[in-house]
Amino acid sequence: MDYNYPGLPNGLMPDEASPVWLNKGDNGWELTASAMVGLQSIPGLVILYGSMVKKKWAVNSAFMALYAFAAALICWVLWAYRMSFGSDMIPILGKPNQAMTEGFLLSRYGPEYYLPTVDYVFYQFAFAAITIILLAGSLLGRMNFYAWMLFVPMWITLSYTVGAYTIWGSGFMRKNIIDYAGGYVIHLSSGVAGFTAAYWVGPRHSHDRQHFPPNNIINMLGGAGFLWMGWTGFNGGSPLAANTITSLAVLNTHVCTATSLLVWLSLDMVVYFKSSVIGAVQGMITGLVCITPGAGIVDTWAAILMGILSGSIPWFTMMVLHKKSSFFQKVDDTLGVFHTHAVAGLLGGLLSGLFANPKLLKMFYPTTNQVTGFIYGIIKGDFYHGLCQMGYQLVGALFITVWNVVVTSLICILISRIIQLRMDEDDLEIGDDAAHGEEAYALWGDGERDPPPLRFRMTPRIPSFCRRPGADY
């Protein structure tokens, strides 16, 4: 039988959904990992944000995450994926183009991988979506939702794509920097951009800033659980294969996270004499973030050390430095995203350059220049390459930081010329009902706008056909 169908990619025949180059194990795992990363955002961060804020901001906070997820996907397939991973336009950005045609999506993703390009498109979308949602954590409780609707596509287009292209695509840092799964591209960028946007949007209502208790700690833990377990796909999917690097990355992810949580919790107990649930969640997040840039290229003993540092250094910047620094006090970072993501992401990137195992680097980066971490460089007598790697990590962090500060500022300034970045003061006092006409909990007297008259609540209502004419009911 003749299967000469030139319109179909790479030997895909009309009755054959599995071309010869496809590895079903790799394909199945990548789709699973992509779904796990998506679940971190929807419902993970939706639940976490909706529960971690004051009750009057629960709907708005959760809805910001839901909207961002949907908007990011449309931007991604229409132009942003190709800007991040397509052909060169300038040294820091690819040419915008759609990623929706059959010939492109069903073709093989690179000669060294055994899965279709569509897997990578969706996996990287989940990364882009969670980045902008993490950024939103700095803006909860006061940003005008209509301004947020403009901010999401603009930031994905002008900021996220540049970080992804320069480090993971064909940009100038691709062949030298270590960023296994997004310590810089995702976490450093979201933390810095969130802090910058928080400056431009302005602070919450003064009462909210002083008193902002979570409205549901149990649900908050549920959202945190989605985040933690979803990180299995976050770091496990980066090799684009179900291989040994994948397995090591998954173990290292959970070891570092557990260590970080315990260290943060211990510091809370020693200093404040309370075992804070919110503190434990923050320690969990910093552990997840810190291990991300090195999950598959460091040894497990290094993952434990990274957990110790990620549970202590961000704790110090958030719980001590933040309270004493006038610089941090000027900017209202609602959920402390700068500390949990920017500080932890930078820490993870530098520690990855410090602890990277040359054998693991060769397995994950077989065609680029990442040779050894600084510690192994000293041990193996390759001090030069180890020192160079630390230099590349610093340069990468500096570039991501400066780009996000500048571009996020320009986006906020531009949007402010179109619409208010911050809600009106009167609306800030009300919260969800002013923003969306809805409230999170419709309890009696706390969600009912027009309760029945008191006499109808105190006594049974008499049907009209039983009433006496002229009687006052």
TrEMBL record:
Pfam families in alphabetical order: Ammonium_transp
Keyword Translocase: no
GO MF annotation: an example: ammonium channel activity
Residues that span the membrane, as ranges: 31-50, 62-81, 120-140, 147-168, 180-202, 214-234, 240-265, 277-295, 301-322, 334-356, 392-415
Membrane-topology descriptor: Multi-pass membrane protein
Gene Ontology cellular component list: plasma membrane
Subcellular location(s) per record: Cell membrane
Gene3D superfamilies: Ammonium transporter AmtB like domains
All residue ranges annotated as the Ammonium transporter AmtB-like domain in the record: 29-441
Family membership noted in the UniProt record: Belongs to the ammonia transporter channel (TC 1.A.11.2) family.
This protein's name: Ammonium transporter
